[in-house]
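DedA family protein
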Amino acid sequence: MSFNIEKLFDHYGYEVLFLGLLLEFIALPFPGETTMLYAGYLSYAGILDAWKAFACAFAGTTIGMTITYFIGLKAGMPFIERYGKWMLLTPSKLEKTKKWYRKYGNALVFIGYFIPGVRHVTGYFAGIIGSPFRTFAAYAYSGALIWCALFVGLGRVFGPQWEGVLHAIEHQSWKLAIAVSVVALAVWCVRRAVLHSRKKRQEIRSE
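Predicted structure tokens:
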């Protein structure tokens, strides 16, 4: 863990989560997963409240993603290509995300949180291609909910072993992305089945 993160938490606490994650999603260098895991550990140690830590992380993430969406929507690709280097949006990162977005579309906004280097640019691309805000928000905010809850939760559950969890995740991030996608798909299918069942019952009652 970076000593700077520990020092920031000593001085600013919850504000580190909110501002740090907000800035990360504007593509500035900030260790989001490390910060949330450490915040979870601090809640395990009784220094922070887990729910407040999660709320700050979620707020910073969603506001940051929303800002990038509107930058992409208003400024478009020429702006990103010209000024992206100042936000650490390298040409290779832009090209990779562009290809993935063409292939996976809005689903990439959801799973992109778990893919290193991708979550920083999906908001921009959603805005650039003109994805409806409601559609973007549905994928972006639900993905943020799972991402923040997972990392803060893991830090709280594993406590002093949180750094070992971080190293494992860094080496297996693609597997984590697949697992989260499978769970999200299962939840979506169950929800769809429940809604379909309710609709059928309403149709039967109305006959």
